[in-house]
Amino acid sequence: MTRSSSTTEPSVSGERIPSARPDIQIPPYDPGSFEDSWRETWEREGIYHTREIPGRPKFYCLDFFPYPSGEGLSVGHCRNYIPTDAFSRFMRMRGYNVLHPMGWDAFGEPTENKAIELRQSPRLLTDRFTANYKRQMRLVGISFDWSREIDSSKPDYYRWTQWFFLLLYKRGLAYRATNWQWWCPVCQTTLSNQEVHPGPNGQLLCWRDHPGVIKKQIPAWFFRITAYADQLLDGLREIDWPARIKLMQENWIGRSEGVEIVFRSEQGHPMPVFTTRPDTVFGVTFVVIAPEHELVRVLTTPDRRAAVEEYIDRAARASEIERMSTEREKTGVFTGAYVINPLNGERVPLFVADYVLHGYGTGIVMGVPGHDQRDFEFARKYDLPIKLVIAPPGWSGEPLPAAYTGPGHMVNSGEFDGLPTPGDWLKLGPSERQALADQWHLETSTLDRIAAASDNGIAAIGRAVEERGIGRRTVSYRMRDWLISRQRYWGAPIPIIYCERCGEVPVPEEQLPVVLPEMDDIAPSGDGLSPLARATNWVNTTCPQCGAPARRETDTMGGFACSSWYYLRFTSPDYQDGPFDPARMRFWMPVDLYVGGAEHAVMHLLYARFWYKVMHDAGLGVPGTEPFRKLLNQGMVLAPDGQRMSKSKGNVITPDEMVARYGADSLRVYELFMAPFEQDVLWSDEGINGARRFLGRVWDLVLRTHAEAAGERFTADDPELTRLLHQTIRRTTRDLERFHLNTMIAGLMEFTNALTERYRSGRWRTRPFQEATESLLLLLAPAAPFLAEELWHRTGHTGSIHQQPWPSWDEELARERTVTIVVQVNGRVRDRLEVEADTPADVVQSRALALPKIRQYVADPSAAQVIYVPGRIINIVTR
Q: Which of 70, 9, 30 is nearest to 652 (CA)?
């Protein structure tokens, strides 16, 4: 984290540049005197209206769909919107067709709760909130094409969200089931697994940080995202996303290859377990079942029922993240029942334990304490046997202090004794492998050979269980299906009707949208049903198939449904015959740059990929199978006290305050300059004031030299400035292309300083200087659009600066004529050598060896080894 700027602002003394002509007065930089008029002009003239000009390349830049809250935007939100705006402006000037739209992910519980509190319509609140967001975005100069604005809470949008629901339903990817669901008593609705997390005191919180989340058995709608698990994993190889986001999705999907082995209770109930280590099955000394599993109450003996029920109740208050934590002590309760191992016929005790999840694998796991550290600790705690069935290399039969997970040979495993097995060796990283090898005083190559054996224990057990009809080789996933139901009012109604004759009936497409009814009271009633259940005139309808009386589904869809396809609607928001115009959608998709917070890694980003893949398979004509080509996550802007900005803490800094004090361009430049884009940073008033001073210097420099030139066009040359100009254009362009926005601003500050120094020394009346000041405005336009536009017109130009072509550079003119080579002897700097940039390597080496300072350390140049990094460094090694 940086406290202010990560790049030091080049030092220039004084608030204003001293004038060489006191008789010529220029106005001070006062952004408030012109920023409003340019906002109006740009909007009136539609210069940011999206164009689809044939023959030009396209660039689709998209910010995450924002949820408009009553608090409005903070300067932290601007950390996202200002950089993407600067980049979009840059791409327009480069001649691209640019789509940079904005809309509102407007359904959701915060607005609904606020509406209940204020006794107002959520529709009216949403319109008020979105209008404020839009005002603030215009205030800071974001060049969105507002003609494409969309709102997910309006029927003309959620009509198509419902259409996509029906598409999923028809393809067997939407279904209703009664399962254990997370329930928030404050929100009065079900939650998906991703929306629950442990709080600071161990209590469970919903994604809105409400306490008291528990599990209840509730009928709900799901999307079968698990059907696309492999496609979602494979697609990660195609996209340019941060490695940590890809890893989070990989871990969330949690693909594991293994074997399902069917144990049985003493009463004969099949109890399949999934394991990636079937080679350890002879080491099973207990079996563990998830608290939610339906067999728990069936198999628990009467004398153990009270203890088991108490444990189940406690487990219902723990999040899955907490339950699966490797740092948390494992707990369980004996059910009184026993299970039979089908490989050796042994009778082992059945425990209920919350570290087993009902939705992961089969909800039942075998306990192998000799070869799983979690099971080892559990066995020690409950005094259960620990059997070693994989012998480490060189093992002589002694008890082990911990579970052994490395490669070895099967023992105590009947007919399978002696088979080699890789253990968890292939899952270990290099350092973990080395530590294991050191523990057993072996070379890693020895363990590698064991792990590479083709006829190993894992394969042999897999074949055996299939041949004996007691299991199968299979793949398991950690990811569960996506819970979409919400028992709230403010959401897209689920387009399903229930008929006593026909059962579950989808609403016909021609009857979409199923519009939310207006209700005076939208507060949850506490009975687990949506407030829509009380809208009897809306609920009671007729069956589309038989015409008999029927009832509508009263659950609404969670907001992530609406945000799973909005990026497609932006391509043609005026299209009425489908969710998007196929031709215009194909012109713009996929999104070239998608920017937003990393907190959506396993929610929105996963869901949107799933929907897009379904669209591809359904033949909707979407290009490719991934919607977002490149993803960037912005760092967080923290308050000066180091905390997250929040209204309750009273530390929120708004763009309104900053624009009023410093101007929109100062806010923009500071947001770009404060730190690398992905890095968290503390807000600094000193930092934004520094940005304001920099823009004031640009203002003074451009207007002063323009006034003093009095319309004269200079012809004198300045090769050094020409080279610096072309280098600056190259550097700025490359920094923007790489999204290195802080160094882009730093480069323009340095360039401004160089021009200022020429003005002060009287060396500015040259042709390159006039070219340089004009180019400075063009290069600064994406970052400081108001100042650049104002100065562009004050210096006699016509047309908007934002519709001018981006400056180009000449590589030959940008090339340095001379370079300074650092000369080292045995790695220590001893001298420096200045040579022509294109000097051959052998000439550089001979000149370096001939330097007097170098001769002091190199007695015999002919015996020295010379390492040369062209244009940078030469190292002479004498030993």
A: 70
Q: Are the CB atoms for 284 and 386 separated by under 8 Å?
A: no
**What residues contact residue 131 under an 8 Å CB cut-off, 6+ apart?**
none
Whether the ω angle into residue 513 lies within 30 degrees of 0, i.e. cis, is: yes
What is the SS3 string spanning 169-197?
A: HHCCCEEEEEEEEEEECCCCEEECHHHEE
* DSSP-derived 3-state class of residue 269: coil
Which tokens in the block code for residue 862? 């002919």
User: Would you call 679 helix, strand, or coil by DSSP?
Assistant: coil
Residue 516: name the closest of 118, 153, 163 by CA. 153
What is the Cα–Cα distance from 230 to 862, expressed in whole angstroms? 61
Nearest-5° Cα angle at 309, 304 to 312 = 125
Amino acid identity at 132: N
pLDDT single digits (tens) 584-643: 999 999 999 999 999 889 899 999 999 999 999 999 999 999 999 999 999 999 999 899
Dist. CA 132–CA 125, nearest whole Å: 11
For the purposes of burial, counting CB atoms within 10 Å of the CB of 474, is it exposed (0-12), middle (13-18) or buried (19 or more)? middle
The whole-angstrom separation of Cα 417 and Cα 410 is: 5
Contact between residue 72 and residue 135 where contact means Cβ atoms under 8 Å apart: no
Q: Give the model confidence (pLDDT) of 46-58 as tens digits.
A: 999 999 999 999 9
* Cβ atoms 427, 468 nearer than 8 A: no
- CA-to-CA distance for 117 and 689, rounded, in angstroms? 40
